[in-house]
Amino acid sequence: MDTALDGAVRVFCERGYHATSIGDLTAAMRLATGSVYKAFRDKHAVFLAAFERYASVRREQTRGAAARGANGRERLRHVLLSYVEHSQGSEGRRGCIVVGSAVELSAVDPVVRARVNAQLATNESFIAGLIREGQADGSIPRHVAADDTARLMICITQGMRVVGKARLPLDGTRLVGVAMKLLA
Amino acid sequence: MDTALDGAVRVFCERGYHATSIGDLTAAMRLATGSVYKAFRDKHAVFLAAFERYASVRREQTRGAAARGANGRERLRHVLLSYVEHSQGSEGRRGCIVVGSAVELSAVDPVVRARVNAQLATNESFIAGLIREGQADGSIPRHVAADDTARLMICITQGMRVVGKARLPLDGTRLVGVAMKLLA
DNA sequence: AATAATAGGGAATGACTGTTTCCTAATCAA
DNA sequence: TTGATTAGGAAACAGTCATTCCCTATTATT
Question: Which residues get their CB within 7 angstroms of nucleic chain C?
Answer without folding.
Answer: A 20-23, 33-34, 37, 42-44; B 31-35, 37-39
